[in-house]
């Protein structure tokens, strides 16, 4: 049975064959820079909106620092950044060579 008779076309399967090149690859919605920009701006709008909501509710604080405007946003950002940096540090200890599983 020939590959043309298999019932799957390269355009429909989402995979490209070696001889088809890049011209048959479907363009996805995140390939368009305008869509990426919309997501980026949307995340900023949502984040700033949530930060603005910090002004409109009563806080029941345990520590004086919690009364500051945007404390939880700042604390969350520092926590996330610390997690990423600790992951980078941990990577030095647990990372294996590229061919580790091939040996």
Overview of this protein structure:
There is one protein chain. By secondary structure, the chain is mostly helical. Helices cover 47% and strands 0% of the residues. The protein has three helices and no strands. It is flat.
Could you name the key traits of this structure?
103 residues, mainly alpha, 3 helices, flat, disordered N terminus
Label the overall shape.
flat
C-alpha Rg, in Å?
25 Å
Q: Please, what is the average pLDDT? A: 83
Helix content: 40-55%
What is the distance, rounded to the nearest whole angstrom, between the alpha carbons of the first and last residues? 38 Å
Report the structural category: mainly alpha
Which percent range describes the beta-strand content? under 5%
Q: Looking at the chains present, what oligomeric state does this protein adopt? A: single chain
The beta-strand count equals 0
* N-to-C series of helices and strands: HHH
Contiguous uncertain segments of 5+ residues: 1-12
Task: Enumerate how many helices there are, as a single number.
Answer: 3
Please describe the biggest sheet, giving its number of strands, its sense, and whether it closes into a barrel.
Answer: none
Topology:
Layout: H1 10-13, H2 33-52, H3 71-94
């Amino acid at each position: 049975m020939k590959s043309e008779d298999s019932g799957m076309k390269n355009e429909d399967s989402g995979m490209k064959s070696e001889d088809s090149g890049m011209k048959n690859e479907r363009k996805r919605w995140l390939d368009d820079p305008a869509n990426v920009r919309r997501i980026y701006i949307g995340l900023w709008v949502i984040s700033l909106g949530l930060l603005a909501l910090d002004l409109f509710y009563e806080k029941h604080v345990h520590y004086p620092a919690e009364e500051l405007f945007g404390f939880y946003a700042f604390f969350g950002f520092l926590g996330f950044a610390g997690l990423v940096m600790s992951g980078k540090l941990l990577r030095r200890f647990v990372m294996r060579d590229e061919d580790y599983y091939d040996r």
